[in-house]
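Notebook entry, structure prediction.
Reason for the run: the old model in the group folder had no record of what sequence produced it. Starting over properly, with the input documented here first.
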Amino acid sequence: MIERYTLPKMKSLWSEEHCFDVMLEVELLACEALAKLGKIPKGAASEIRRKATYDPHRIREIEKKTRHDLVAFVFNVQESVGELGRYLHMGLTSSDVLDTSLAVILREASEILVDDLKAFLSRLRRKANQYKRTPCVGRSHGVHAEPLTFGLKLAVFYDEAKRNLGRLERAKEVISVGKISGAVGTYAHIDPFVEAYVCKKLKLSPAKISTQIVSRDHHAEFVTALALVGSSIEKFATEIRHLQRTEVLEAEEFFHEGQKGSSAMPHKRNPVRCERLVGLSRLLRGYAHSAMENVALWHERDISHSSVERVILPDATTLLDYMLNEASDIVGTLLVYPEQMMKNLNLSRGLIYSQRILLSLIDKGLARTEAYDLVQHLAMKAWKDGTDLKEAILRDGRMLQTLSPQEIDDCFNVAHHFRHLDRIFKKAGL
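New structure, fully documented this time:
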């Protein structure tokens, strides 16, 4: 299913060709560093770079015999170089190449995801400001609470997305770590200069200390950051799903001409894109769990993490790429119904203003418990009888002894709830 939606840019990062290209660059940079150290003849590195290439079909052919993908890759590159091929992979172990090239690809993937999230933020910002003063009802426990605005709803998602941007940018740095330190991290057969040189050229940080591999807490933190972004997308998608319910219908996904919601019911307009995002966020969280399971390996390294990462890292980055682009489009094309929002706001016949009445009574000198019981009694009666709370208050002698009709009327002014909107939006950077 995801293959249809995969964006070419992210997809190309995980192509066999790109992976081989980065692996080859790691090998060639290592040769350059060795040449600078005088460990291989002058000019050998440039000659190797000029000749070095690979053939995926030949690599697979060699791997049938070696049963080792990196060995097959090195052997094939050596074939293309000829006699100078003996200087390739000198003092390196497989993970020096694989972990360092993986860091390059994950850094590239992170840059795409950061751009995706910035685009999502831009859409949210525009929509939040558009509906900054559009009244709607706030809900807690799924029940009407107090008035807010639709723009404020979106501002909350915007603020959370900004935090996610920070997480992604930090995750990019966390994962941008390479290592070329040999079989158990002691640099026994390779000078630390090689690691420093290669990592600098690839815009990576050398691991401060490593075993045969870069410690997998780096990767677990990275995938967890992706899962957090996915969870925030799920939070947004879940809100839209609720708002699209027939009984609510305050907003809904754009429904394209010719689109069908059901094979059986022609009237259906379902929030299928948001539901898809909710499902995919579950998958991302599962990948985060798998990444954490990869942290504890035997001694200086085992291979149990490798098979997991070959699935979760391409999948997690590709999934989030898709999810962010999909969420951006949903925001940009969202159908919003202010009239229905106002209708729902008035659905409880004034009950959502109960706290304002409570506080007004307290201001007049009533004890909080006494004021609370009085307002609750009238609210429950109005709810049961299906009458307006304001009418019930205006008929109550105790209320009229405490509050004037004008003061009561002011308690039901929705504008009171929006006095600090500008301040809230400014705090959120909107």
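Summary: The CA atoms of residues 8 and 376 lie 59 Å apart.
The old model has been moved to the deprecated folder.
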